[in-house]
Write a structure and sequence with these properties.
Helix content is 14%, strand content 34%. With 583 residues, the chain is an alpha+beta fold. It folds into three domains: 2-213, Jelly Rolls; 217-313, Immunoglobulins (Immunoglobulin-like), CATH 2.60.40; 318-556, TIM Barrel (Alpha-Beta Barrel). An eight-stranded parallel sheet has the order 33-32-31-30-29-36-35-34. Strands 2-13-12-15-9-5-7 form a seven-stranded antiparallel sheet, with no helix packed on it.
Amino acid sequence: MKFKLRNSNYTNFDIYKENVLTPRSYFIPFNSVEEMADTDILNERYSSSAVDVLSGEWDFLYYKNENLMPDVLDTDNTDFDKVSVPSVWQHTGYEKPYYVNTRYQFKPNPPEIPADCPVGVYHRTFNIDDTDKNYILSFLGVAGGLDVFVNGEYVGYSEGSHNTSEFEIDKYLTLGENHLVVVNHKFTNGTYLECQDMFRDNGIFRDVLLYKYSKNSIYDFEAKTKFNSDFTYDLTILPSLKLVDECELSAAIFDGSDMISTKSINVDSKQIDKITFSNLDVEEWSAERPKLYTLILSLSCEGKIVEFVRRPIGFKHIKIVGNVFVFNNKNIKLLGVNHHDTNPKTGYMMTPEDMKKDVEIFKQYNVNCVRTSHYPPDPIFLDLCDAYGIYVVDEADIETHGCEVELHRRGACSHNVKWQPRYWDRVFRMYQRDKNHPSITMWSLGNEAHGYLNQDYCYNELKKYTDIPIHYEAVCRTSRWAYDVVSQMYPPLNRIYKIAKGSGLPKKYFTKPYYMCEYAHAMGLGAGELESYVTSFMNADNMLGGCIWEFVDHAIYNENGEFEYTYGGDHGEEKHDGNFCVD
């Protein structure tokens, strides 16, 4: 089959997504209650007959320069390599690992990128046995830009490496064998928003899912909780449905195997109401007592259930009282770490077992909070935080550090309104995907993007959807100073003593909860004064706590190399920051 591959999406500043579906929360549909009951949060995406996980062996072509890629790919007459998906180029032999902290891999001049950059072309087939269904193709993580093609036809484009990108592909499909091609450009205009301190990997590094829905389906829902003065909660289900017939939507809340309540409503394409459960006597969720209930949604048409959805839900409420962060009427302390998606053997690609191991280590060492530095993680990671009890600072995939250190123009992107749609797209996709997780304790607008114009816009827009506090540290170096909490990195102890005491500094330090999004840099002796920091914020109500930088070292495992582990500069990087990743 032939595919016309070449277009200018990845260098066209007017395009950052095309034909991408409206973002929605992550959940797995099931065709029967039996298969839903027979799986858990680690395995449900791999166990549902309503979802095909397209991970596994794919055909692959790597081109060092974009101009080497053919205009037309003939999959029947091409000698492909084979790669496992998910994976990254830098751990499958196509490129060497590349570590840089605050700089870009090329000379920056936003939004211009190296036009003739490397590109990877992925191909695989999949089978369809019913073309009357609704099919959604979901990419959970692709580092770089992705053009998507099905059966020789262009489907759409997306960028934002750690955000989910979904495409409806019904009209491109045929019975039997179908061909999927993904063109993955190393750099896009959006690369300017991904200048994070990490090895810079590329490739399809998270699972690819194919959702198989009937023509009547649950597209999305929000499980919104409201705390009442009598210490009960209301739960409102706000559904988004795809319907061609009159159906019945049911919602049931379970505590273990015990049903607490259930309600049903009639729905059609013109009338979709919310479902509200009032005055529920429930136990609240917290990191210390991560009580979860099970919400089961079912959609029935003509007396037959066509879809089940199961999601763990928790009940919590957060408010800021003066300069105190209050979670379930308690002044909590965040004893946190910053967490990157990293594995020395596979790079960005983490298995569910890798994620579970990290969260279990959190609990073993009394870590009760994680900042997802500096992007949204795989949804399974958040499921684990819900279940084990970890407060989450969920961070948008935005950092423009190189604009400061290389261009010496901190606001090159953040204070340029032309970048605003890209900023909001990343924040909005994060919020919509993760909105139902009880572990979300703060939303973060990104890291070290050094401005506030576009962040102001994102803050104001996000506030329309959520009352969960919003964090962004870099605004403290501007006249804006803070959003919902005062956040700083690596404050000296003498400053912390004064903030905890409530005097000795300008008033702005004391008007909101104080949070250290990074502190006790765990490199060399960097964490040596940890006890002094923790004692200070334990003894003062305005001190929210902080997240140690960082949870795990970044390094590359070399089974047969001269050195077992390598870091920046060991792989021929043109720019690098040495062993600063071993922190």
